Amino acid sequence: MKISHKVLQKYIPNLENPEVIADKLVMHTAEVEEIHYEGETFENMVYGKITSVEKHPDADALRVCMVDIGENEDTQIVCGGSNLEVGQGVAVAKIGAVVSWHGQETITMKKTAIRGVESFGMICASEEIGLADQYPANDEKEIIDFGDLQAKPGTALAELLQKNDAILEVDNKAINHRPDLFSHIGIAREICAINKEKLDFEYPKNDFSNLETFPLENTIPDAVNHYIAVKMQQVKNIKSPEYILEVLGSADVSSKGLLVDISNYSLYLIGQPIHCFDADTITGKIVVRFAKNDETFVALDDKEYTLCEEDIVIADDEKILALGGIIGGKSSAVSDTTTNIVIESAHFDQAILRKSGKRLGIRTDSLNVFEKDILNEMQICGASLVVNELQKLLPESLGSTFTLFSAVQRLMCGMYFAATIRLLRLNPRENILCPHLPGNCRGGHRTSGNSRKADSEFWSGV
Prior knowledge:
Blueprint: E1 2-4, H1 5-11, H2 18-28, E2 32-37, E3 45-56, E4 59-68, E5 75-79, E6 89-93, E7 98-101, E8 105-108, E9 112-114, E10 117-119, E11 122-123, H3 157-160, E12 166-170, H4 184-194, E13 216-218, E14 226-233, H5 242-250, H6 258-270, E15 275-278, E16 286-290, E17 296-298, E18 304-306, E19 312-315, E20 320-323, E21 327-328, E22 340-347, H7 350-360, H8 365-370, H9 378-393, E23 404-410, H10 449-460
Helix pairs in contact: 5-6, 6-9
């Protein structure tokens, strides 16, 4: 598991340096296998400004550029970029820099001659230096254009882009018995406990306990004893903000737009896996059930899986939407055209998911967390986090008719309740996004004294 030191700093004001944190975790909690310094990735890479662009004498697709990189003379670089312009601010990989050639083969830059013209480095595309999420390209030949970003030529790229994070790689095997540690907030709480400090973080907990019915059927309550579904309308798959990309980047997860990223944000920030369905692909009600023998399912990895009656699925009246807790389905996936979503936050039986993943040959980060048996209290936190973030990041819905549904089924001493929340109009002047209902929505399904004590101790520390 990989943890961002920069993200931890947001929740621990006086956080020690990465080496000290690693030593403390090793002495008290788990092995830290390695510390990855983000700036090392951008060694020998600088900000440059193109001063001239000429045709290559022996290749129509290439250009010979002169680039100011803060040295005594401009540097000559042969480049095939489709958007090269004089005055353009670009990322330059100097001799000795390590880049990913067209996002694939790793190479070290050296002086070379391209079709007879000497080249002393490379003007980089975003995928070649790990910046595809921040600077998405319109075509495969487009190089990074820093636009109006003002910088002195020769400024180190790591400094310019504030790529100064340190990623602590924690040994998963050492914390298999601690599912609460599989997240940034979990590690932050552990550090605060080691330092005998209080973590300044409050889990979001919207109250869905007194709401109307939403069409959802849970036929396997013993296997899925907590399931929350929230339908949101008028959403857009916009680019995610930097604070979400920081959390995803620490886990080496690529951005796929806000509606996908927000699910991973919940997973890596607080440890609750979330899945978002395109609501317009769902027919009838959502049904939580076991699969039928030989029932097939095409997943997000484009593979077709043949299921058995021991696999948990999320379905509608016609088809399977997801393999519960493991991977979503192709037919219900969100896309750039999605405008309505259903947010799923659930608790699945750890043993069932582990067996399904092993039999089908699937390993996902979601499964990795679920098979550790996370607390039921976290589902309300995950759903609330995603709902609150989406409402904050999509302000165009303010002042318009906005409908929010929620469906909750929870095992509570053998009883169930279903819930629906409808918010008809928002008041942008008062910035009211949703009603805050009084009360506490922490899990009431645990019945043993030990479990109640453990839950009480857990929540008293957040």
